[in-house]
Structure formats: structure tokens, C-alpha cells
Amino acid sequence: MSRIRTAAAVLLMSSLGFLAGLTGGRLFDLNQVDDQLAGHNSRLLAHAMRVAHESRRLIDAATHATDLCSPSDVATLRVLLFNATFLRDVGRLRDGMLVCSAAWGVLQTPHALPPAAFATRNGVRLWVGAANIMDRRIIGDMAAQNNVVVFTAPGAFDGFPEPGAGIDAKLITRDGRHVYRRFGRIDGLDLQDGQAPANYSLRAERVIAECADEPGSPDICAVSRTFAHGWFGLPALILACTGALTGGLLAGLCVLWRQQSKSDRSALRRAIRRGELQVCYQPLRELATRRLVGVEALARWRTCDGQDVPPASFVPMAEDIGLGRELSRRVTEKALRELSARLRANTEFYVSINVSAQDLQDDAYSDFLLRMVNDQGIAPRRVALEITEGTPLSDAPVLSTIRALRRQGFRILIDDFGTGNSNLNYLAEIQADAIKLDRRFTQAIGTDQAGTLIIDHVVDISRELGLGLIVEGIETEAQAQYLAQRQPATIGQGWLLGRAVPAEDVPGA
After folding, report:
1. pLDDT beyond 80 at 150
2. Parallel, antiparallel, or unpaired: how do β-strands 278-286 and 350-355 relate?
């Protein structure tokens, strides 16, 4: 009887462990699906914003021209269209009639526009999935304001939904009354901004929504859905077998671990969207005089239970869930707003902001920065952009964005110099204002001969190329004195010169 009871207990625990493991594996699968869906939805919204911003820029650039539809005006429209990425044509309107366009030239007979699908809050009329005015075989979107109409290219959203993702999606207004684009089957696809599938829900239908919330951004929301069918995927089977062998305890621990991971991601998503992340500022001082010349803006996250999460943990997490660009923009907005008075003053004080490769791959990033500094009345020269040395310069749009930002007046710094692709060609391509030496080399001063030689070499390079030099991780007076003697104009950053503090505690000098 005892053996029977023991066997029954073992069988029961194994069965419970198997079921717990199977459920944990299912949750693991669904968490991965949710993260992939959130990333796709954020990328779709970002792309829609790029298309909308390009349409807005083209309309603004073509508005208020004189001699409408003259040869010079048509030539101007063609130049604007040539520089567009997502638009197929731009034309002129007179009394609601299309009279000329970049693609068709001056029309012998003006063509009437069909009734618009709807109008935005700023007066832009929109046509969604409309037949082209000139050739009804061409289907696309149109936007018109004043005397300008632009035609979105039919392939502007090629690649969405992403191939093989099995995702249905749509782009809508925030109130859900109007649909800009449909992708796949969208019946029943309605969700409020910021909502997501219930944590640890086992439903196969996974839905997530996100709306553009930058100041002055278009009224666009993205809603995406996918279905996660099949309980017996590889992770589920592995965890089920593990649960059968080790009992309910191990399976329960696995579920708890996944719950914590999901909780962290959800908490970070909420913190970013609600603007709950803090920004602290670490002083940048000229080593020879200890004069304060600027600060670096550093993101900080304290969870609701009071735990401080290091940036090395939450920044990669934000990128994994598709919110890396939004995190960067939140930090930039907060820094420029909190330091606006200081940056507008007639001094050389500046703020240094970290920029990722994802930011530079965003066509709208340059416009975003200009809008932020203009809104706060700050000269671009007062903003330094720290670009990681590993940023891929082989990506032509990235290099073009960097050069455009520098032409607009922003300072360009190469961050973590010496840890990535250090070569003179890299410096020449970026045409930076300064290089920022990584802290690991600073720690070598006086303790490691090879590291000290590298520092001397970098100092010589900066002097010969006329570049500014910023050195991180200065923690001792000996380090500061050594660098000041080698290059008096060196800018230092580190605990010796000041720790990161809130905006109100930034020293005056």
C-alpha cells in the first residue's frame, strides 16, 4: 500500500510538473510573440510617421509659390519630388481641380478631385486607397492642403506587415474613426493606445496598440494583431519534460522567472511612455582651470518599488521591445526642457546627449532635433551629440544624417573612442568636433605603461587633427594633473569633477 501511495504521489507530482512546465512553456512562447508584436507595431508606427512627415514637408515646401504651373513652377515640383522617398507625385490645385503636377506636367484639361475621405485637425484633406486622378488603374493615398496635393507611392509601405510575421495591422486616428492603412484582416481589430494583451493571458489572439505622442506629431496610431497557435512548441515540450522530472517546484520557479522578466519589460514600457524616467547631468570641466563647460545627460530609471536599474540593463531592454528610439527622444526632450534657460544664456555651456545607430537610421531624427531646439529657443551649437564609435558608417543614410546634423550646427562627438573601429578614416568620415576617450584608458594612467602610451597617442591625434578631447572616468587628482599637463584644453568627466545630479543641482561654475 505504501508503494502504491508513493507511486501515486510521484505520478501526481510528475503530472503537475508536466502541466506546470507546459503552461510555463506556453507563457514563454507568448511572451516572445508579444515582444515581437510590440517591436513590429513600433516600427510600423515609426514608418508611418516618416511617410506623414515627408508629405508634410513637401506640402510646406510647395505652398505659397507664385506663377502656379509655369515652367519654373513645374520644374520646382519635380525637384521636390526627386528628393522624396515615399511620394509618387506632387501637383497644384485651383478651385479644387488638379491643373498640373510634377509627373504629368500642365494638364490640357483640369481634373476634379473626388470627395476626401476625411480631414485632419490641422486642415489636411486625405484620400485613402483612392484611384489616381489621371489613371484609375493606379491606387494610392493623397493628401492636400492650400493649393498643393501629394500622392503617396503605392509601395510606400512595402515590407509591412513584415514577411512571415503573420500579423494583421492598421493605421488609424486616435479616436479610431478613420483608417489610414489596412494590412491583412482587420475585422475586430480595435484597441486603445497603450493597452496590450493581459499579462500571462493564454489567449492565442495577441493585440497591441501605440499612438504617436511627440509634440506636433500627426494623429496616427498603429494597431497590430497576431495569433499564437499551438501549445506544443519546442520551449513548451522542453519545460514540460523538465517539470515531469523535477516536479512542480522547478516548473513553478520557471514561471515566476518569466513573470518577473515580463513585469520588468512592462514596467519599462510604462515608464517610457508616461515620462517617468529621470535625467541626471554629470559635469564636464576643463582640466586646466576646472571651469564648467557643459554636462552630459544620463537616463536613470527607478522602479515603483524603489530599485535603481542601471542603464546597461534598461537601455538594451528598451531596444529589444522596440522603444529604443522613443527612450532616446524622451531623454532629449527632458534634457532640453530642464536646461533650456541655462542653454539660452550667453555662455558656451552645452549639453551632451547620447545618440544610437537606431536614431541616425531614422529619417525624421534630424527634424525632431531641430524642432526641439527651436521650441526651446536653443542654438544647435549648445547641443553635442555623442555617437558611438561602432556606428556603421557604411550605411549611407547614417553618414548623411551625421553630416546634415553637423551642418545644422550640432556638435558631433565620437563616444568611447578607442574601443571600436579606431582609425583616421573613421575620424575623417564623421568630421567630428571632439573625441571622447573611454574610461578604461583613464584607469591605466600611472598603473599600466601600454595604456598610458595609448592615451599619449590619442592626445597627439586630437592635437594634430584640431579635435577637442574629452576624457571619461577621472577619479583621482593624479589622473587629472597628468592629462592637464599633456593637453591643457582637455575636458574631463568623472567622480573627481562631479557626480551626475538632477537639473536643479547642476553647479553654476
Report:
1. yes
2. unpaired
